[in-house]
Specification:
InterPro entries: DUF3631 (IPR022081). It contains 16 helices and ten strands. Helix 2 crosses helix 11 and helix 11 (about 295-315) runs antiparallel to helix 12 (about 315-330). With about 450 residues, it is of the alpha/beta class. It has two domains: about 20-40 and about 50-330, 3-Layer(aba) Sandwich (Rossmann fold), CATH 3.40.50; about 340-430, Arc Repressor Mutant, subunit A, CATH 1.10.10. The chain has a five-stranded parallel beta sheet. Strands 8-10-9 form a three-stranded antiparallel beta sheet. A two-stranded antiparallel sheet has the order 4-5.
Length: about 450
């Protein structure tokens, strides 16, 4: 973007975002996305309950969905599909997302904020990472300029927040959420905030406070979509109501455009306004839609607004939304709340491999023995009997690293870790002193 756009108002800025190549995404190129003045899609008439498809989702013997559901072929692309593609490119311009599915999910979540009165559930967007400087705050910058009516909750009290929520709710944005919930002592002090965020996930869950000179009980609305960014997992009750995006640091060679609000905000606001112009007339349609979902229970409640927006857009978006839903909810299944030490374990494992002469693999028992033998490290006291194989797996799971059955040069076959599985995490989170520190802002 050129600095000359700085003086333009959001209403006068008419920018389109070049498509950004997304790994695994066909058709990305560097031409501009054509848009019209109003961006309104052509939507076929619907009945009182719009299901999006009459086909039944494939299920197992127990009745559980087996995978993405929805139209088998891409629906005709609409102006809305072009707007979502343009929004996805705008996000990818400033932030390296952890996966194609995460980028699609963030795009659909932003669009869904413009139809909040239509939703039964207000999905949270949990933007978390194992360490600092993974791009979490930068993603919130882009969200702030593209969501409906952003409300930054830095240092805001729960009372101030629920008094700001109306029938046309704002979009709550909470940065450094780990400072609210990062330790039991701090979390206890912010229990009211967690209660507000939990209650606001579902419609008709007001909070009651005594207010006014007559001290009458008064009900306040809590329903509003919210994005929360922080280091480490948020409380389970929030993560269970969220689309979870697990950010990571940029690796060497990964580049993003710097974000300068003076000239980047106006075109993002213009894009936001065109998305709102497209979606606002579709509010009643969206409220009647009940799309087939590849998941059920609370996961379906959380993802339904994103899938509805995708179905309204057409094109490839119905398929992309359900693929992201299936992949990301499956990844979160069984995730536990974990403590820190994740960067420390990477650094110490690299030192152990170096001490053994950097072999291609090490048996798990050798790796654990060396870790526990370091008197200055916490591993000898990690758990009742020191760091265990299970404890090691838990610390490494966010990095996608696990042990495997390996055959070693002495002819034995044992559980162990392959060195090159750590290479990407070492580069991102604990680069050597002589390596350039390519990190996200």
């Amino acid at each position: 973007m050129q600095p000359t756009t700085a003086g333009m108002s959001p209403a006068s800025t008419k920018a389109t975002w070049p498509l950004v190549a997304v790994p695994g995404q066909p058709g990305a190129h560097l031409s501009a996305v054509p848009v019209t003045e109003d961006g309104t899609p052509e939507v076929a008439p619907v009945s009182d309950r719009v299901t999006g498809s009459t086909d039944q989702a494939p299920v197992t013997d127990s009745g559980q969905p087996t995978g993405p559901t929805g139209p088998e072929e891409s629906a005709p692309a609409t102006k809305g599909a072009d707007l979502l593609t343009e929004l996805r490119s705008a996000i990818a311009r400033y932030v390296i997302m952890p996966s194609r599915e995460a980028l699609d999910a963030a795009t659909l979540w932003v669009a869904a904020t413009h139809l909040q009165p239509a939703w039964q559930h207000a999905p949270r967007l949990a933007v978390v990472g194992p360490a600092k400087r993974c791009g979490k705050s930068r993603l919130l910058d882009v969200l702030h300029d593209t969501v409906h009516d952003p409300f930054i909750t830095v240092n805001s009290t729960p009372a101030a927040i629920f008094r700001s929520i109306t029938e046309q709710p704002p979009t709550l944005l909470v940065d450094e959420a780990d400072t609210l919930f990062g330790s039991p002592k701090v979390a206890e002090k912010n229990e009211e905030m967690r209660g507000l965020l939990n209650a606001g996930h579902q419609r008709n869950r007001p909070t009651t406070r005594v207010s006014g000179p007559e001290h009458k009980p008064t009900k306040f609305l809590t329903f509003a979509m919210a994005a929360l960014a922080g280091i480490g997992d948020l409380p389970d009750t929030i993560m269970d109501r969220a689309v979870v995006i697990r950010m990571r640091r940029r690796a060497p060679g990964e580049r993003v455009q710097s974000f300068r609000s003076r000239w980047d905000t106006p075109p993002l606001h213009a894009l936001r306004d065109r998305i709102a112009t497209w979606l606002t007339p579709l509010l009643d349609t969206a409220a009647r839609m009940e799309p087939p979902m590849p998941v059920d229970d609370r996961a379906a409640d959380t993802w339904e607004p994103l899938v509805i927006v995708a179905d309204l857009a057409g094109g490839d978006w119905p398929r992309l939304a359900r693929t992201a839903c299936t992949a990301m909810t499956a990844h979160e299944a069984g995730q536990d709340e974990e403590g820190g030490l994740k960067t420390r374990i990477l650094t110490d494992i690299r030192a152990v491999f170096a001490a053994y002469g950097d072999p291609d693999a090490l048996p798990t028992e050798h790796l654990l023995s060396a870790l526990r033998a370091d008197t200055e490290a916490p591993w000898a006291e990690h758990g009742p009997n020191g760091l265990s194989p299970r404890g090691l797996q838990i610390l490494l799971k966010d990095y996608g690293i696990s042990s495997a059955n390996l055959r070693f040069p002495d002819g034995t076959q044992r559980k162990g870790f392959v060195r090159n599985r750590f290479a990407d995490a070492w580069t991102r989170y604990c680069p050597e002193a002589n390596e350039p520190d390519h990190i996200g802002r």
